[in-house]
Amino acid sequence: MEESLFEGESVRLRSLELSDVPLIMKHWNNINLRKELGPVVPHSSNEREMWVRQTWKEREQRTAFVFAIETRKDRYFLGHCALKNVRWINRSAIVSIAIYNKSDRGKGYGTDALKVLLRVGFDFLNLHRIALNVFHTNKQALHVYEKIGFKKVGELRETDFVDGKYVNDVIMDMLEEDYRQLYHTKLAKNCLRG
Fold it and tell me: 177: domain range?
């Protein structure tokens, strides 16, 4: 089977479509998701439709690349991920991801989607550095990011007010050389074995 740039082991990344808005809205206003993504206010379907349209403009302008995440097996919509704030002179971007339904978390979908997104960023967009920010209270996300190979490079204190208290923003990143060492070395070893 031919390998696709936008497919991992269990997920496929694709452009967001207006037909995704009802799927997005199914979980978008869930209080736990809102606390993770901010701001903690309800969003309308019209706002999400404008957001989807904005992702298309950002892709055209090459300032951000936002993808829907769906399962490969049955094209079940899981959430979205993005390379945003793309700075071409510095060859850097910020990564973000959200698996909307809590029952879809912990199944490896986010990990797989991030690996695909890293491949897109480093192997095809020629980025040098991909960074992210995550609340220090989001232990599950911190674990996933570390497992994938992101390194903690700093922590901003009390940056956001969430659920009655201030939380810190952990800054993590991966450099192109980190990615190549982690993923191309594994790939080469697997090819030699196979």
Answer: 11-193
| pTM for the predicted model, two decimal places | 0.89
d(CA 8, CA 96): 17
- Model confidence over 4-27: pLDDT tens digits? 679 999 999 999 999 999 998 998
Give the CB-side neighbour count of residue 70, counting CA atoms within 13 A.
Answer: 16
Question: For the chain, how many structural domains are there in total?
Answer: 1
Chain centroid, CA 85 distance in Å: 13
Q: Let me know the angle formed at the C-alpha of 35 by 153 and 85, rounded to the nearest 5 degrees.
A: 50
- Distances 66 to 16, 86, 119, 152, 186 between C-alpha atoms, Å: 7, 11, 14, 24, 27
Residue 120 lies in a domain: yes
